[in-house]
Amino acid sequence: MIQIGDIRVHVLSDGRFRLDGGAMFGVVPRVVWEKTDPADEKNRVSLALNVALLEAGGKRILVDTGMGDKWGDKERGIYGLDRSTDLFGSLGALGLGPEDIDVVINTHLHFDHAGGNTRTIDGRVVPTFPKARYVVQLGEWEDATRPHERSRASYLEENYVPLATARQLDTVQGELEIVPGVWVMPVGGHTAYHQMVVVESRGETLAIPTDVVPTASHLPLPFIMGYDLFPLGTLEAKRRLLARAFDEQWSLLFYHDPRVAVARIRKQKDRYVLGEARA
Known about the structure:
Elements lengths: L1 E3 L2 E14 H5 L4 H4 L10 E13 L2 E5 L9 H6 L8 H6 L10 E3 L5 H4 L3 E4 L2 E4 L5 E5 H8 L15 H5 L3 E4 L3 E4 L2 E5 L8 E7 L2 E5 L22 H17 L3 E3 L8 E7 L2 E7 L2
Parallel strand pairs: 4-5, 5-8, 8-9, 13-14
Antiparallel strand pairs: 1-2, 2-3, 3-4, 6-7, 10-11, 11-12, 12-13, 14-15, 15-16
């Protein structure tokens, strides 16, 4: 647990999985990225699912929900999915269950960020967190429910349509304070309406940019995923975020980093690198 002013931040795990290294690093050559992220025999790199639990304003808030458990053996093999630790277990270690979550913020609705939104009970797919409102940008919802050929594989309706059916979906537009000190801010890039979460209290700030800067290995500006629909948007979002995070000494939470979850950054010549780790 780390403290951001009056706000408690717990980093929970929904396990690990693997994705193609070339796709994770885009135009960056393998000879460069494999120095920090070695690939397996299928060219896949190891990734974490670091879910933030925020205790703020008298509410418990999850930022994304990992990949969830609605996967068959074939998909588990494709993604090298390892859920020996999962979100339920991580919550249980804090003495919490699904009914204790008040808000879920989805930065976007790709399966590795929204997979735990729902679960299957008695053959029906229902919201995992029965008392929570699920917050997502309206544009992201519209894109997820009308995917195109490039985005369709990342959007699985079972992860978000049941939220609307259960009347637990809360679509928002633009920058918004969800509870005192917890903001959603659209940044685009990865998807058109991707949002990050910014936590502010008593002069301290934590940013959760998820797929704008998925791991500490993606701190260099050109390191942008091949999955990004608008890579130049990602570039500009990263440029603004990292400059401010460095100048104001923000902490960053890296959603997909298997080595470090929360850290500050520093500058080494003309590039940003990992600084003091906090979790």
